Known about the structure:
single chain, alpha/beta, TIM Barrel, 42% helix, globular
Amino acid sequence: MRGSIRQLLDLVESGLVPPEGFLVEILSFTDSVDELFQAADRFRDRFVGPEILVRGIVEFSNYCRNSCAYCGIGSRNRRIPRYRLSTQQVICTVERIKDAGIKTVVLQSGEDPGLDPYWLADLIKEIKSLGQMAVTLSVGERSKDEYAIWRKAGADRYLLKVETTDPALYQSLHPGMRLENRIRCLEVLRDLGYETGSGNIIGLPGQGPSQIARDLLFLRSFGLDMLAIGPFVPHPDTPLGGLEPGSMEQTLRAIALARLLCPYCNIPATSAIGTIGGDSARRHALNAGANVVMLNFTPWPYSSLYEIYPGRPGPDLAGKMLEGLMAWADENGREIRFSIGSARHSGCRATEPDLFIRSN
């Protein structure tokens, strides 16, 4: 295994794309792969530095037109009440994020068929008027015109996860959707100048190391700015509710490989990781190549209704999680970075001085 990791490092150091078989071997190995995690941590420090970037999430609508087999807010779930936050509710939440020192707000929703693109554009403008703050959108597949309206309004980033690049698996999990359209949307977003993010789910039924390896190679080939990789978390009100969650070990390996393949990307220790493994798992991810933490500020009771999977931390824990993260960073030679935190290889860098809570 050490030899395989050494060969992988030689390839990525040379700027070469490793063969799929290398990745499959590492994902399939049954013993410890501490060397992989250590290599990814070195890459993280070398290419994006010791900083941990913090983002604040506002989940402003749980309406969704899709019926993805793993998602608790899909249209087939008749048990959850649906909601849409008002402009004032969103702005009040963004002000709480700003007061916490966080300078990136993530506006997230299901693929809400009732989303007025001009309402969202006006909301983006109002958020930008509050001061220097980046806006990330995660509202699914929309038209090129809508993406352009939001970009013109000031949106900086867009996250659109592919979840899997295996066509048959994608089709089985996403009734009525097409992988080709997902990828086309990512191409449009990139062409419009968004910092563009995507990612996948680890542990989906029917997924093996080969599918994960192909996902990672696709994500590398696309030239993304952000990668979000998390484990499958079963929701009881979905067709996959009775299955086992994804492997935390496999998720950490995928994150580490993503860091080696995409060294400049911002990679979060996702909330799904924390849901399955708690704060310790999230910190393992930060030691395996991740450099971003997302904190949920969606106001109660709406945060409990945005249940894409169960057990997600709510806004009452955001402050406590940030305090714990700061303490851990101080003990482990890392820094909490209160800046916009754009991708290092992006042209959309922050212009204000970075503000750090230093760990030395």
